[in-house]
Each structure stands twice: as structure tokens, then as C-alpha cells.
Amino acid sequence: MDKILEIFNENTSKKYDFLKINSLNIKVSQKKVLLTLLIQSEKYDTLTADEKNEITAVMSDIVKSVSSDYSTEINYKKSYADCDVIEEYTINYLRENNPMLCTELKRSYIKATEGRYGYTLTVTAPKYIIDAFSMTDVTPKLKEFYYRNFFEDIDLDYKVADVETSGEKLGVDNDIRLNVIKEINVSDVVKIVGYPIEKKPKFIKKSQRIASDCVLCGKIVDKQRRTSAKERVFYTFTLDDSTDKIRCLYFPKKDKVDNFFNVVDGTEVLMRGSIKADENSKLFTFWVNDISLCKIDWNTAVDETVYKDVPEHYTRILPEPFEDYYQSNIFDKTDIPEYALGKTFVVFDFETTGLDTQNDTPIELGALKITDGVFTEKFSTLINPQRSISPEITKITNICDADVAGAPKFSEIVGDFYKFTRGAILVGHNVDFDLGFLKRLGQDNSYNFYDNETLDTIKLARKYIHPTNFTLEKVGLFFGLKGEGLHRAFNDVVLTAKVLLKLIEFIKKQL
Question: Residue 178: pLDDT above 80?
């Protein structure tokens, strides 16, 4: 890999010497080279589209010089280091690659410190654990791992502890869990499109990130036959395996259109394809290549993750009573839409460091509780993302690094927000985007946000009204509502909540 980078730097006169190859995978069946380039955090947000095109072109030329029939696909991964990040990366690496060692390791054994020329990761543990490090290949592999994931120099140091320290061992620590990929048992597999599928399907819940060769199963939901502008037939649908759902896209070959035409909602299927992030919404879509009918053993499609209970008390963010003077002008108390009665909604919105739900992180959370059609409680906080906020995000949100420096981490407020949302229908404008963050970060902290019902105001607007476009601001103006200070989480939430109630009233009149 480093030889490729050396040639690349020579061909670009070291213009992009802030890049490093994080990983290289060759997909022989697709004749494709997949490259993930590590990029320094301060360069990540300033890299232009023209520069990315140049990088891809040069890398493609290098690949083609070796094998002319291979294409090149490039992804970018931001590199950021501080003591907390290095500790978390180390723990996750050991959990995934040395689970037996983790049965004896404790979090308190691992400590990163910053020095003048870089960082040192020190393991201070009983002698038998230090011996285990020295007698295996853990050290060179960890150093290679650091090299591939950080630009900073990171040394390893081992010290024998005089006494046993307290704390749970990593093998049973629920706060940082190994992301085990679960599989579902299927039988009676009958191919109907493409090639036979021999691999077991993974949980959708554990698979929603970019993947070039992924096998999933589930029931088909909301299948729709569509025609493109070039009159090509394609299908959209949702795949549900009970652990989660993922939206799917299938473009059949002309001679295979009828093979999928008779597959109806509720059919159990096994599928192979690629998971990609939508260029516009950044949500993950499963692009299907091969399809088989099957019988699913639903007893194996069970999420075995152990989640935390609802906290007894709020600890960091205490919800505040909320009363909006404008709400009295939306409805009389006796004219609240029937659909809203007997229900609790929590309208919520994140401001984030970017649009990647798997790698970016929130910088602000705003939420508003609606009980029986009445705004009742406010939940609002800035969040320390533990990384730099780009100038582009600051320009949109007016939130900068200084604003979040003293704010709590998401892990410190997620329990409070979990308590705030119990029994509620989660609502957002393009809610799947915010749910992507909430589900991932909730699971990382052992809180289950998968079981809430959801409602999306943008989907309701697209189905029932016709504004000039479907941004929150335009949908609000359709109902005569004007937001204030948009692109701040709680301000967006208040407008979304008002739009929700107006939509409910409007839809009722249409039905």
C-alpha cells in the first residue's frame, strides 16, 4: 500500500502529502480496487471536488498501470487524535482482534498521554497480562493499526502494576461493546434473479454502513414499480428483518423484469448487493443484485444486545416546561386534531458535524414533547463532538468550537434523552437522517431507540400537500408558519412541531 502512495505522491509533486492509505481491498469479481484514504482533520473539510477528482484520476492511472481492466473507487476517512480517541480506538481494536485478552483487561489499565512529539499509550497491568502482550504479536499489530488510522506518532509502553486496580473487565463492559455481526438462518432458498446466494444474511441493524458485498434477508414492504426518465423499469421497496429496516433499489436487466414483478409485499427474500449512501439524503440504500425466495427462521432474527433500563432520574439535562404563545392561535383547546389525542410525540432535531450518520457526530440536540396535542416540555443542549467543527458547519449553524468546548458529550446526555422519549412517537423533518445518528449513538451507549414509532413530516408533506419545495421552511410557509433562527436544533423543532399539527389537521379534512 505504501508503494502506491509513494508513486501517487511522485505523480502529484507531493501536493497531497496529507493523505495516507487506510485500507485497500481488491474485489476480483467486480474488477474493482476500493481505497480508503486517511486525511488529516484540518484538510478534510477543505478538500474540493476538483481535488478529489484529481486524486481519483491519478490513483486510477496507477491501478490501470498494473491491471488495465480494474476500476478504482475512493472513500475518505477523517483522522483526529486526542487521548480519549486513542484510548477508545485501542479498546475497540483489542475487543475485535484479541477477545481472549480482553477477558482479563480492564479499562483502567489503558491510558493515553500527550507528549511533545506525539502520544504514548500505556498499559499498566498485572505481570501476567503484560507477559501476554510481549509473548504475542499484539504490539506490532497495534502499531500498524495506529499507523493506518492516525497521522500522529503513537508509542506503546507497558508497566507492571503493583496492585490490582478496580473496575469491570473489558470483556463484560457494556459501555463499549464489540460490534458482533449477527446472522439469520434461512432455508428453502430458491433463486429467482442473478446468482445463487450461499452466504448467511446479516442483521440489517448491524449492517447499515457502506459495504460492497452484503447479504440481507427479510420481508418486502411497500414494493413499488417505477420507470426512469429513460423509460427503464426499476423497483423500490423496504426490507424488514425485524431488527431494523433498510430501503432498497433494484434495477432488473431487461430480460429479468418479470422475474421480480410477481414478488409481493410480505414475501420472504434473501438478497445480495451493495449498501451505499444516497448522494442527497446521505441515508443508506441497499442496491440489490441477486434475489432468492427463502424461508426465514425468525427465532434467529432477534437482537441479543443487552440495553440499559430507563434512568430513574435526569442527571445532566433536565427538561423544562414549555408554553408557546403562538400555539393558542393554531387550535382552540376543543379543536385539537383527534389523531393527536391520547398520544405523545417528541419532535427532535440534531445539528451535526456533517451528513454521514455513521461517522459524523451531533453538536446540538433540540426536542419538544407534545402531549394530547399540547406543547409541554423542552429538551435542549449543545454537545461536545470531541472534534473540530468545520467552517462550513459553523456558517450554517452559528455553532463553533468555543460554543461546545464546555458542553457535555453525547454519552453524558443520551440517558436523559432516552428517558425523555419513552413511550413517544419520534417526529422529524426527514426523520430518518436524525434517527441514523440516534440509533447508532444510542446503541453505542447501550440505549435502544429502535423501538419507538416514528413519523416524518416531509413524507406527509410530499403525500398530501404541494408547496414549492419540501424544505422545512417552505412547508411551514405553505401553512402560513414562519420559523425563526432556523438551522439551530430547537428552533427547527418548534417549526416542525407546528407543521406536524397543521398537517394532521389538513390531512383529516382531505380524508
Answer: no
User: Residues 443, 447, 453, 456: is their CA dihedral positive or negative?
Assistant: negative
With cell 423496504, the residue in question is 238
For 244, phi and psi rounded to 5 degrees? -175, 180
CA atoms lying within 13 Å on the CB side of residue 36: 11
How many Å apart are CA 473 and CA 481, to the nearest integer?
A: 8
**Helix and strand counts by DSSP (H, E) for the chain:** 16, 18
Residue tagged 402531549 (cell numbers): 371
Q: In the β-sheet with 374-382, what is the strand arrangement from edge to edge? A: 320-321, 374-382, 362-371, 344-352, 425-428, 454-456
pLDDT for residue 171: 52
List helix spans (H) across 255-400: 257-261, 327-330, 391-397
Q: What are phi and psi of 223, to 5 degrees?
A: -70, 135
Could you give the CA distance from residue 294 to residue 269 in angstroms, rounded to a whole number?
5
Cell numbers describing residue 404: 461546545
Q: Whose CA is closest to 292, among 357, 396, 196, 180?
A: 196
The answer to whether 117 and 152 are in contact (CB under 8 A) is no
> What is the spatial distance between Cα 128 and Cα 431, in angstroms, rounded to a whole number?
50
Compute the CA torsion angle 140, 143, 149, 152 (nearest 10 deg). Answer: -160
| Alpha carbon separation from 475 to 122, 220, 444, 467 (Å, rounded) | 54, 31, 34, 6
pLDDT 10s digits, 89-136 = 888 788 767 766 776 778 888 899 998 888 999 998 888 888 877 777
Which are the contacts of 390, defined by CB distance < 8 A and separation ≥ 6? Answer: 44, 45, 353, 354
Question: Per-residue pLDDT for 330 more than 60?
Answer: no
Task: Identify the band that residue 183 occupies on the pLDDT scale cut at 50, 70 and 90.
Answer: confident
Q: How far apart are alpha carbons 354 and 282 in whole angstroms?
A: 10
**DSSP-assigned beta bridge partners for residue 358:** none
Query: What count of Cα atoms within 13 Å lies in the side-chain half-sphere of residue 106?
Result: 11
pLDDT (tens digit per residue) in 227-253? 888 888 889 999 999 888 888 999 888
Q: What are phi and psi of 236, to 5 degrees?
A: -120, 145
Is the whole model's pTM more than 0.85, yes or no?
no
CA distance 354 to 396: 11
CA–CA distance, 42 with 223 (Å, rounded to integer): 43
Q: Is 429 a catalytic residue?
A: no
How far is 22 from 8, CA to CA, in rounded Å?
15
Which among 313, 429, 466, 487 is annotated as catalytic? 487
Q: Cell 426499476 maps to which residue?
A: 234
CB 427 within 8 A of CB 457: yes
Whether the CB-CB separation of 119 and 81 falls below 8 Å is answered with: yes
